[in-house]
């Protein structure tokens, strides 16, 4: 029967739902985002992005990005920035986010009066800087693609203060010295000279080193190659690979106008030319900035000289670093850098390493035509002949006069070269190195050297041989390290060790041998053998690491090989034979058990009892990084990295039957990892991987693929582990895992004046794990504050101490917010924190 009341109720409900849906649709906003750059694709910070219908808008971040929230509809975006042509873009927002990147063009039609902003300062410094910025695109493009010859002289002294400049002397005034007399001030010196041809276009550069000479220990010298950084302050960002991971903001940029304070210090005259010397200081809210003076020519509005200091905060290796530059007009066409001087030092306690590097540029060929394939992934090359140049070559190419001390140093090194390579001298040197002393045995370790056979042994200090906190009790360890690097850059490394367990009267040990047979393509053979306690949950939280159920005895023999097949394509292969047995019959310390009696996780802390078995494994890993850039030396290759990610595939197989092997499984994993340098915003690292067993006929516990639990107190490596997983568990079927870490390098905290003085730096990131077989979906985020400290006994070694907060969410469990601590060390070889 028809019921009018029921029909009316349904109608009202329907109208209500329609109204609610309409209200939700109209109220939903979408993200409008993008990046604003100049014609050189450099990010523009502090550009204005305004909706024409509004009275306010947003300003781009340091990396040039912006973001708006707009309801569906039609809008006019007004993009403006001082010195650039304003743009008006019409966009239509539908039911999706909107990406709009923008390239700004310099506005040449406007006069200087249109871009000058009134300020508190009465001098003309900011006006002068604006003039240079207004012309810098034309200044940089004046040279076009070009070539030039570069001479580099780098000198470093240990445990000495930086002294004032010394007067250069003529090369023919070499004083005679007696090589038999001690010269400690010269023994502490190191020096290198390089002559190279530099080819450069607007986007690429390539160098060929024509002459190289080194005297003393030159490992710590800065700027022996132009690949270590581009210090041209006409660029908006100064990228210095060897100096800092973070690029620095140039004062000669529109973003620099907001990040720096300028003051006219004095006016100078160079002939008929009037020069303005302008002081440059960072504002309190600035981050990666420099400080010093810039000299600018009146009317020409070009830089003629700079002397700028880089902030200690962003220098992992140095306590002071300054660059001084001279710009000159070349061929009446372009203003180019013709001389650079880098002054730097590192100090620790009373020790100090100081250095000065001078680079001069001459013989410019402007507007040069290069072949299309001229610039590629090989950015630097050095032939063997470059290391064999005689004194006449250096006299002809040395454009920077030597100081008196440098002349004495060269003469001293050259005059004693034969003496220090005689058998008598090298024997005496070996006697010093091989001499047994209490300091060596108890602090630094003992070394033994054999110069005739080019062999070197190292022994650790005696305290390191006593290891009380080992499975089964105290062990006495004997270790030795042997290495030999041949003149052709091939090398061999041998690392044997033995240990004796006092309680169980057992002997363990291992032997590792690595032979680098091809330094250029990284061809290396590896052999290992040993009897060692191994952990099932390697890399797990400390509470799982100390469980005796985590330990087994592994007797193993391994053979490995790695090689670069093509540029960026690496192949790794390994074959391992193992005999595994339980350690349930080992005696343990009952007193130690009583110490952990109140910890539930360590209750019944006994090893796992299992039948011994043999296992044979094969592993293959193929990794490829497109467009990998590198430096070619005569006998080796130095990899610089790539803007592309690394893709890899890895397979591990348990081989049944071979050497009576019992295991039988197949595991396959795919992954991608990359480092993204985001300019002033910082550096991001991410990795994504997925893997699965597709054969588990005989898969033992040791060979499981584990997802490790988070450590209760310590912040674990965020590229490998999760911080808040509640337990460690295996995965057998397809899983998906990702990690992300961003190092802001002060981009946020340095905007706060009070916190900037504390020299803190911030990190953030997160990760996810999807394991369908366990119906688990997990996600975590973290943020932390870190501060850099210096190791007290090393001038060049630093570490970061951090405090982190971690939050997570999962469909299987819940974790409270956790606070953790962590330590990260600086790797001088890779110039990275790890």
Description:
The chain is mainly beta. The chain contains eleven helices and 45 strands. It has a 20-stranded antiparallel sheet that branches. Strands 14-15-16-17-18-19-20-9-10-11-21-33-34 form a 13-stranded mixed sheet, sandwiched between helices. Strands 1, 4, 7 and 8 form a four-stranded mixed sheet that branches. The N and C termini lie far apart (78 Å). The relative contact order is 0.07. About 6% of the residues have low confidence.
CA gyration radius, whole angstroms: 32 Å
* Shape type: globular
Mean pLDDT score, rounded? 83
How large a portion of the residues is in β-strands, by DSSP E?
Answer: over 45%
Quaternary class: single chain
Q: Main beta sheet, described? A: 20 strands, antiparallel
Helix-strand category? mainly beta
Tally of helical runs: 11
Helix content: 10-25%
Point out poorly predicted stretches. Answer: 4-8, 11-26, 110-121, 160-180
Give the beta-strand count.
45
From the N-terminal CA to the C-terminal CA, the straight-line distance is: 78 Å
């Amino acid at each position: 029967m028809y019921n009018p009341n029921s029909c009316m109720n349904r109608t009202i409900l329907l109208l209500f739902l329609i109204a609610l849906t309409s209200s939700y649709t109209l109220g939903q906003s979408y993200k409008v985002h993008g990046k604003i750059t100049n014609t050189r694709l450099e990010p523009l910070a502090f550009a204005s992005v305004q909706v024409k219908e509004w009275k306010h808008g947003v300003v781009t971040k340091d990396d040039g990005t912006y973001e708006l929230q707009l309801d569906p509809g039609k809008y006019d975006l007004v993009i403006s920035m001082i010195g650039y042509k304003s743009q008006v873009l019409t966009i239509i927002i539908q039911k999706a986010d909107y990406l709009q990147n923008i390239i700004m063009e310099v506005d040449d039609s406007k006069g200087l009066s249109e871009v000058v902003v009134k300020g508190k300062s009465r001098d003309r410094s900011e006006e002068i800087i604006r003039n240079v910025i207004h012309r810098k695109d034309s200044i940089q493009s004046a040279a076009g693609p070009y070539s030039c010859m570069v001479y580099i002289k780098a000198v470093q002294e240990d445990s000495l203060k930086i002294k004032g400049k010394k007067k250069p002397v003529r090369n023919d005034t070499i004083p005679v010295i007696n090589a038999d007399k001690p010269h400690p001030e010269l023994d502490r010196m190191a020096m290198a000279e390089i002559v190279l041809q530099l080819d450069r276009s607007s986007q690429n550069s390539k160098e060929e080193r024509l002459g190289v000479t080194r005297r003393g220990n030159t490992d710590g010298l800065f700027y022996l190659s132009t690949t270590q950084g581009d210090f041209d302050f006409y660029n908006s960002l100064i990228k210095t690979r060897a100096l800092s991971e973070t690029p620095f903001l140039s004062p000669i940029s529109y973003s620099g106008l907001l990040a720096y304070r300028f003051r006219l210090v004095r006016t100078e005259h160079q002939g008929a030319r009037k020069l303005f010397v302008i002081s440059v200081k960072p504002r309190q809210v600035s981050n990666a900035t420099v400080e010093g003076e810039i000299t600018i020519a009146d009317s020409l509005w070009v830089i003629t000289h700079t002397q700028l200091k880089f902030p200690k905060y962003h220098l992992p290796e140095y306590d002071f670093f300054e660059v001084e530059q001279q710009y000159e007009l070349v061929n009446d066409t372009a203003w180019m850098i013709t001389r650079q001087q880098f002054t730097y030092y590192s100090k620790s306690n009373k020790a100090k390493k100081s250095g000065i590097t001078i680079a001069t540029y001459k013989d410019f060929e402007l507007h040069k035509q290069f072949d299309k394939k001229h610039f590629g992934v090989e950015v630097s090359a050095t032939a063997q002949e470059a290391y064999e140049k005689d004194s006449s070559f250096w006299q002809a190419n040395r454009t920077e006069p030597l100081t008196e001390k440098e002349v004495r140093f060269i003469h001293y090194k050259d005059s004693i070269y034969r003496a220090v390579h005689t058998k008598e001298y090298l024997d005496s040197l070996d006697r010093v190195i091989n001499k047994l002393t209490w300091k060596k045995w108890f602090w630094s370790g003992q070394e033994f050297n054999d110069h005739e056979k080019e062999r070197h042994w190292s022994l650790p200090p005696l305290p390191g041989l006593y290891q009380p906190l080992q499975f089964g009790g105290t062990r006495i360890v004997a270790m030795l390290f042997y290495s030999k690097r041949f003149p052709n850059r091939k090398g061999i490394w041998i690392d044997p060790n033995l240990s004796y367990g006092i309680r169980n009267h057992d002997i363990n040990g291992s032997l590792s041998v690595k032979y680098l047979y091809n330094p250029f393509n990284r061809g290396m053979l590896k052999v290992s053998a040993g009897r060692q306690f191994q952990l099932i949950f390697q890399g797990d939280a400390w509470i799982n690491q100390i469980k005796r159920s985590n330990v087994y005895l592994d007797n193993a023999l391994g053979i490995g090989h790695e090689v670069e097949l093509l540029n960026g394509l690496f192949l790794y292969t390994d074959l391992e034979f193992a005999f595994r047995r339980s350690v349930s019959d080992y005696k343990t310390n009952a007193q130690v058990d009583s110490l952990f009696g109140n910890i539930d996780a360590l209750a019944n802390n006994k090893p796992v009892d299992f039948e011994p078995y043999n296992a044979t494994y094969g592993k293959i890993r193929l990794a490829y990084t497109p467009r990998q850039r590198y430096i070619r030396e005569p006998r080796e290759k130095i990899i610089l990295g790539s803007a592309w990610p690394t893709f890899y595939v890895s397979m591990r197989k348990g081989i049944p039957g071979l050497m009576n092997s019992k295991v039988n499984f197949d595991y396959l994993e795919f992954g991608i990892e990359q480092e993204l340098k985001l300019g002033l915003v910082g550096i991001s690292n991410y990795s994504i991987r997925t893997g699965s067993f597709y054969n588990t006929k005989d898969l033992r516990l040791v060979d499981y693929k584990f997802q490790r639990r988070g450590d209760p107190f310590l912040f674990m490596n965020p590229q490998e582990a999760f911080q808040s997983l509640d337990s460690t568990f295996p995965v057998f079927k397809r899983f998906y895992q990702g990690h992300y870490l961003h190092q802001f390098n002060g981009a946020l905290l340095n905007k706060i004046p009070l916190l900037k003085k504390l020299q803190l730096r911030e990190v953030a990131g997160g990760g996810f794990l999807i394991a369908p077989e366990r119906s688990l979906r997990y996600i975590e985020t973290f943020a932390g504050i870190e501060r850099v400290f210096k190791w007290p006994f090393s001038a060049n070694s630093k570490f970061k101490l951090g405090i982190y907060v971690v939050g997570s969410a999962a469909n299987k469990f819940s974790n409270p917010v956790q606070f953790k601590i962590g330590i990260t060390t600086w790797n001088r070889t890779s110039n990275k924190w790890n």
